[in-house]
Amino acid sequence: MNAPTSAPAFDHNLYAGCAAQIVSHTRELAAKGWTPATAGNFSIRMSADLAAITISGKDKGRLSEADIMVVDMDNRPVATHHRPSAETALHTHLYRRYPDVGAVLHTHSPTQTIAGLLYAPEGRVRLKGYELFKALRGHTTHEKTFDLPVVPNSQDMDELTASVDAVLSEPNTWGYLIAGHGLYAWGKDISEARRHLDAFEFMLGCELEMRRLRG
């Protein structure tokens, strides 16, 4: 584990506000059954150099402020001995790549996990004609086709981050699936990230149901 560092310093009031937002959303998502066991991780960017993020191995339905830590963009814990999740690297990758990203949410709903497995050979879930495209920032019509990337799972975070980096396109896709794992969604703040997460969950559910009906 990376040793904690005391620099850069962070504003504790800002940290407390970020922690409160993360705890509120994680409890709601846990209640939906999207964070089984201790799965999932959630973060908010605090500054160009720091992010508040859930610590590893905690029931996401029972988090408190003490379960939210601070990391720098090299995934090192700041002023704490808590252990960050290995998947912290996937959060900081998005913060480094997209300066306007302010929050990242990662969940493991059954819909997300199944869709990731079913569509892994194609490397994408092709979404078409959904009114809910308009829930995604920058999208104003249902009259389009949207590809949600699917990347293969790996326990090697460098390998997994490289796979993600290779499929992200411009303009921002706002999300991607990891096969057999779950969904990452992000936005300018946690409210927007949550809207994107909920929109993808709905559309993926529709795709799975249409696939079932087609037989």
Tell me about this structure.
- The chain has a single domain, classed as Class II aldolase/adducin N-terminal domain (L-fuculose-1-phosphate Aldolase).
- 35% of the residues lie in helices and 20% in strands.
- It has helices at 12-31, 88-97, 110-118, 157-167, 190-214; strands at 41-45, 50-54, 68-72, 103-107, 124-128, 145-151, 175-178, 182-187.
- The chain is globular.
- One of its GO terms (molecular function) is methylthioribulose 1-phosphate dehydratase activity.
- It comes from Lysobacter brunescens.
- It is an enzyme of class 4 (lyase).
- It holds the Pfam family Aldolase_II.
Q: What is the helix tally?
A: 5
End-to-end distance, in Å?
47 Å
Strand content: 15-25%
Mean pLDDT: 93
- Per DSSP E runs of 2 or more residues, the count of β-strands stands at 8
Q: State the helicity in percent bands.
A: 25-40%
